[in-house]
């Protein structure tokens, strides 16, 4: 266990173990309480009663029983995942996760860790999802063993290994009732893609684990080198970040990362910035001083001695807007595309479609008259924080879909195309 | 077309275009003959009559007709793919590829290029196959536009884009009859994994293309930096490569690549060297002088001032042998594993299984008596070159399977386990 916990859990560490009662979390808690014999640290378990099925009571009773037997203090709380999911228009898996993490963070020690039982099978799914949705080397680092206050000691073990360790030691667990409906995408990866890959290579998950280790080694070196370049060539003043033009002499791998660091400095994040956006900045090397480039929520301009990154005042595509590009758009963690899907509307002219967040005065057409979008949100009990990020589809300036809540009444014609929506809100 | 061919095809370049008559190769030849109007270069097409189906005659006639119309000299040759596949125990796809490449190389100009019509769909399949089988960043560079004498100008286009370009320009083609049976693994990727991934992200192939570009940028920088380290710290003498111990101070990403460069220098290749093998070399940092590590076909030893890489005389696991590790082994481009598969034998004790190439005196048990393995090869018309790489499964020292050719007659018992085999010989 030294190799699982050593260097991370010390005598003064506080650990709150997420404890559903399912096999993964039981095995994690077992290892933690065993490790405590060698290295006394502060260990508590935390169980959220999801209020979901009849089995939730059974799971809670089981959690209490095990913690009692193992002499681990247990914190229990009740939540109504279904109601929270309904209120916030979330999938039950996502709702469950939000409530769990909130519960854990409220109950852990200020500088303590939350121990999570994610294993290699989860890791492989996460890596594949990122690869499929679009990522770079950084995304292929997957989940980290230590990530902020989250600690995942079991990441290198497969589910199968966990189950056989439990069987060998004769440790009881409940069947994973807390695995709420996985999202559409994760389900496809778990039930179709991983088994297909294992039919090609029975050691597929191990191969992904090695790939991940190499990705982490490579990315951490590249990130360090890029930071050196940023520190040597970057300057920040009044919300404007400039990079001296020597940045164009850096190798592609480092220049691209230095651009990302500049974007992150200006905007606080690099969401919505794909490879093509970052690569487009290179065109400024040959541009005249004062010429520039509009990226989502960002302007990049050629200056006398380099390039400047800043948030534009008014002009340029706002971050609160996305148009379809090749029939597709991503917006605030949602994907829209022309084609088949579970949820969709018909649009007449895809090139006139803009997806954005709410604006004062927004209305949506009913059979007779209009309704304020604000009232649509109020009826659905969407809180203010969520309203600011809620996607609204407009066509030719008219609100046609408050996504997931209300579609405009329009005379659709045969020639119109389906615009489908998938939520991407998933860890 | 400047962006497809510019910088690679010049006035003095000789290009031999692989030309099956299928849509991809027709579009490639079309672009090449159009480009010739701007930049006169030496263009020939090459068509191999596979002798496989009735349609092969039709394809050949079509190829001749198009080349005649487009005024491109055409080289045609006939081959018997089925016979070659049978003789060499290859799949028809692999046999077809071997014969085609041999044909192209015999007919291209000495310093000329072979233009191939691989497109983004092929590229995505290749990347996924490598990821599934186990690879690092280098493998995720995928196929390169220019790789030795192979030139693949269409790698950034999807099959769909090629088909619509052909439709738009009203260019005829034959239906891809030369797409011989794809291998088991590629078929699974093409028919199951890619469609599942596209159900999650309709822009999946574009996402893979961006990932590939980034992988190439990152890998080329890392490879250059590792070469600098190798040049600064490496020395070669009498087949022994040494790296000074400063190599242990290099970042993981570069040290691991410097080790690979040393292995490649000593052995001529880095096949059979997985991440774990390379990472194990790190343990030598703390070892006593003279202590060492046996890797497949390689010995690495701590010396006074660093580490030495060399091919061992006799000791250590020979490259011609593989034992099962966690129920699996890879050997000379073949994979063996305990479990279900199309082709398999029963083994009594997996830990006694060794897979190796032929040795003088090898015999295999028949119902009555034995047969020389040499005669098994002769009967199957396997040439000497292939015999040296042919996998032979032994259990407790006895030859039990000349893979694909002959199994030993043994009294199998219920408790015995299936050892399955998949060939990995695929580009």
UniProtKB/TrEMBL annotation, chains A, B:
Gene Ontology molecular functions: tRNA(Ile)-lysidine synthase activity
Known catalytic reactions: cytidine(34) in tRNA(Ile2) + L-lysine + ATP = lysidine(34) in tRNA(Ile2) + AMP + diphosphate + H(+)
Group of enzyme by EC: ligase
UniProt subcellular location: Cytoplasm
EC number of the protein: 6.3.4.19
Pfam families linked: ATP_bind_3, TilS_C
PANTHER family: TRNA(ILE)-LYSIDINE SYNTHASE-RELATED (PTHR43033)
Entry similarity comment: Belongs to the tRNA(Ile)-lysidine synthase family.
Descriptive protein name: tRNA(Ile)-lysidine synthase
């Amino acid at each position: 266990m030294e190799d699982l916990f050593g260097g991370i859990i010390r005598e003064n560490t506080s650990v709150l173990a997420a404890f559903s009662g399912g096999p993964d979390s039981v095995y994690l808690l077992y290892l933690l309480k065993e490790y405590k014999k060698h290295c006394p640290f502060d260990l508590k378990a935390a169980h959220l009663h999801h209020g979901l099925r009849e089995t939730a009571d059974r799971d809670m009773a089981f959690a209490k029983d095990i913690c009692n037997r193992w002499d681990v203090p247990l914190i229990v709380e009740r939540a109504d995942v279904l109601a929270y999911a309904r209120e916030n228009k979330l999938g039950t898996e996502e709702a469950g996760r939000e409530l769990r993490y909130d519960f854990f963070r409220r109950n852990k020690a200020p500088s303590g860790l939350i121990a999570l039982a994610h294993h290699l099978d989860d890791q492989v799914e996460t890596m594949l999802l990122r690869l499929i949705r679009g990522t770079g080397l950084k995304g292929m680092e997957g989940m980290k063993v230590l990530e902020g206050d989250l600690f995942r000691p079991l990441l290198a073990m497969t589910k199968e290994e966990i189950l056989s360790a439990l069987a060998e030691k004769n440790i009881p667990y409940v069947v994973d009732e807390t695995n709420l409906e996985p999202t559409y995408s994760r389900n496809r990866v778990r039930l179709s893609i991983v088994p297909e890959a294992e039919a090609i290579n029975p050691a597929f998950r191990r191969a992904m684990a090695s790939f991940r280790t190499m990705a982490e080694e490579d990315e951490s070196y590249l990130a360090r080198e890029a930071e050196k370049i940023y520190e040597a060539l970057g300057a920040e003043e009044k919300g404007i970040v400039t990079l001296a033009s020597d940045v164009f002499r850096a190798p592609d791998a480092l220049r691209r990362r230095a651009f990302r660091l500049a974007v992150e400095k200006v905007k606080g994040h690099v969401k919505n910035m794909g490879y093509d956006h970052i690569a487009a900045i290179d065109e400024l090397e040959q541009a005249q001083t004062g010429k520039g480039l509009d990226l989502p929520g960002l302007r990049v301009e050629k200056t006398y001695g380099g390039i400047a990154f800043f948030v534009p005042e008014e002009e340029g595509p706002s971050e609160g807007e996305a148009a379809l590009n090749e029939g597709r758009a991503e917006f605030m963690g949602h994907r829209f595309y022309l084609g088949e899907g579970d949820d969709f509307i018909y649009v007449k002219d895809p090139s006139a479609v803009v997806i954005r967040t709410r604006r004062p005065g927004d209305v949506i057409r009913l059979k007779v008259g209009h309704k304020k979008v604000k009232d649509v949100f109020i009826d659905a009990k969407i809180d203010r924080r969520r309203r600011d990020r809620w996607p609204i589809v407009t066509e030719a300036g008219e609100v046609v879909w408050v996504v997931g809540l209300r579609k405009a009444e329009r005379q659709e014609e045969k020639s119109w195309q389906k615009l489908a929506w998938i939520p991407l809100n998933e860890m």
